[in-house]
Amino acid sequence: MLPNTPRSLAARTLPRISAGAKNARTATALNHVSRAGLASVACRPSASSSLSHPPARVPARGFATAADSSFGTLQSSGHKPLFDKILIANRGEIACRVIRTAKKLGVKTVAVYSQVDADALHVRLADEAYCIGPAPSSESYLRIDKIIDVCKRSGAQAVHPGYGFLSENAEFAERLAKEGIVFIGPPASAIVSMGSKSESKNIMSAAGVPVVPGYHGTNQDPKLLQDEASRIGYPVLIKAVHGGGGKGMRIVHSASEFPEALASAQREALKGFGNADVLVEKYITRPRHVEVQVFADQLGGCVSLWERDCSVQRRNQKIIEEAPAPGLSPELRADLSAKAVAAAKAVNYVGAGTVEFIFDNDTHKFYFMEMNTRLQVEHPVTEMITGLDLVEWQLEVAAGNPLPLDQRSIPLVGHAFEARIYAENPRNNFLPDSGQLLYLSTPEPTHIFASSVSEHHLAAPSSSSADSGVDGDFTPVVNTSAALTPVVRLEQGFEQGAQIGVFYDPMIAKLVVHGRDRTEALRMLRRALEEYRVVGVATNVEFLRTLAGNEAFVRAEVETGFIPKHFDELFPPLPEPSHEALAQAALYVVLRDQPAPTSPSPWSTLTSRRFGGDVYERVITLQSEDTSASPMTVQVKSHPGGHLFDITTHTGSSTQTFSRVSAHLSSPTTLSTSLDGALIRTTIVSQRPPPAVPASTSPATAERLHVFHGAHKTTLVLPSPAWLLSLGGDVLGAAKGALRAPMPSVVVEVRVKEGERVEAGQPVVVLESMKTETVLRAPVAGVVRAVGCKKGEMVEEGRELVDVEEVEDKA
């Protein structure tokens, strides 16, 4: 396909969303609450489904119809029509999320995509799709001119920016307005005011919203910034004035760390947001991250949709969020909501926005941090506790319609969690990973949006709240004893077979659950994570499951430093593979290598025997991913007929025997066994190296078996034959001082030259992958013998970048 040509999807057979039974409207305020999200059950790609044929959707069980939306009762009273067609200036799961609501409302969608996203899910779901440039976002998703051109060519009347990319770009909003295209977001003036962390704090102070002590001025002289840091007192937080998502943010504990941290934060901010300016604030040592979802219309209405807790983070980025925030008193919730609405009104805000606060666990005081002038990644947890479709609200407000609910009518029912599924390696400092999703099996969703909050969940408003007016009451009135069906929801932008590249954020999907209370929701989250299975890239699924079961997290003892504080509990030593997993892996190899014949033949009875008539036996050597561990062996001996096996497993510490085990492959990835008398279906996925990988890269030539046994994933390595490894020599004995790329990356900076003396821990190379900077440091003190990269170069994972020859200090 040529670049910049429309990719019409009308010819593709995309399934329509089925509708359930029509629910009668009530006369209460809940008439306005969104039931539209229950139009259908979300579709889930199976592990074996073809990527070119999206699976059919399953009708919901008696849920409300798509027409029964939040704004249904406004139709007869001057309701303004929605847009006929919108363009989504984004990719991944948020683009798919917007498309789902647009389809529900009968709004046509236009997708834009870079060349590497040509076959992405959002491209295939949209009604039209246009290529807007090469893979780097600066040449595609950040190109305002190209997006406006596609709007004109496609006839899109409005643009939904999603989050990230151009979602908080005031110039983009202004350019759209000049072209007569509606920006589904706040006015440019609000983006400018709240997009600058320094200006926003000044506005908040004037509006009576408490702010964290710090320096928010425009002078960016490094010496002045360091002097201000000393005045504030360490630890301090350096934060990019523009942008968000943890980019351009560094925690500094001492004056000696400040210069390097400042330079790194400014460099990351400049690349991510086009502006290197930073501010310096006091770093609160035991903070929580609590944010309030606000929504405002063009008529002056503004409400709080309650708060979320997003405290558990890594790399200053959220990985798990929940709503409502645990442990807040009704009075504190009301105060937070009131301050958030005041913040939005102070800048004449319109649309969906999030006012973020730092909550000090020690003093129980909260401070304004920043306002995100867009829809947040974690918006689904708010949808779950309110029963509202926030994207639908965005479209209606952008069309000029008023908010459907006043403050006293917004429900708060149950508890919700969102877990972000990332392509990353938690045990390697959460470094992002890239590659193909070779296998993907997810928990079965029950809803595509949020469950409906019906009238029996809402208690009758008291007379005091009824008289308090639209903006005066921030106390949700709910019936906590009402029955509520647990919900599992999946927000994903990639299917099996998709490529997770290095150019964009490594988030694969979001897993969202909702229950009657925090305990039930957390139990639902753990169960759903146990069913989430990915092969092809490293993910944080196992880590998230450990986190969801951590005792401190269960007790809601959350703070932004939760992961380092509980590091040893969250990252226990990797256990030795279980005997059950070893036995299943060996059986899988035996059955796979000796498939049943497709037609009767004289040889069909010989599959488990030698020509001499002996019973078939095989010893399989397996290795854990920890290459320093001793190899393990499994002896498999078949009974006549080949369907019963005796298995003996040997690990470094013990031996176990399983007798007369029946086994067969139900599918290429499913092993059915009667291990220890219990019938077990185990998913096992083989990850073979590409044919083009030479034997010299010996780690890549080994086959990996991913065994999903019970709630755990065990990865075992089938070592390559000795003769194959001998072709490439021993490349595992790399020099002690060799620095290799931990992931596919772009080289941002090379700080050393050949012959230069370096100290252990000295920064040597700075890499960037998936919008995140990583500094590689010299592992030993010595002399640089070789530099194998240059600034701006794209390097593959495992490539040797710098070789440092260790030199002992004779002094």
Commentary on this structure:
The chain is an alpha+beta fold. Among the domains are: 213-283, ATP-grasp fold, A domain (Dna Ligase, domain 1, 2-Layer Sandwich); 579-595 and 605-728, Glycoprotein, Type 4 Pilin, CATH 3.30.700; 738-806, OB fold (Dihydrolipoamide Acetyltransferase, E2P) (Beta Barrel), CATH 2.40.50. 22% of the residues lie in helices and 27% in strands. It is built from 20 helices and 43 strands. The strands form 12 sheets. It has an 8-stranded antiparallel beta barrel with strand order 28-29-30-31-32-33-34-35. Strands 5-4-3-6-7 form a 5-stranded parallel β-sheet, with helices on both faces. Strands 8-11-9-10 form a 4-stranded antiparallel β-sheet, with helices on one face. Strand 28 (617-624) and strand 29 form a beta hairpin. The longest helix is centred in the middle third of the chain and has 17 residues, at 330-346. The relative contact order is 0.09. The model is unreliable at 1-5, 8-76, 461-471, 597-613, 691-700 and 727-735 (pLDDT under 50). InterPro entries: ATP-grasp, ATP_grasp_subdomain_1, BC-like_N, Biotin_carboxylase_complex, Biotin_carboxylation_dom, Biotin_COase_C, Biotin_lipoyl, CPAse_ATP-bd. Residues 82-568 form the Biotin carboxylation domain. Residues 201-399 form the ATP-grasp domain. Its cofactor is biotin. Keywords: ATP-binding, Biotin, Ligase, Nucleotide-binding.
In a few lines, what is going on in this structure?
The protein is 22% helix and 27% strand.
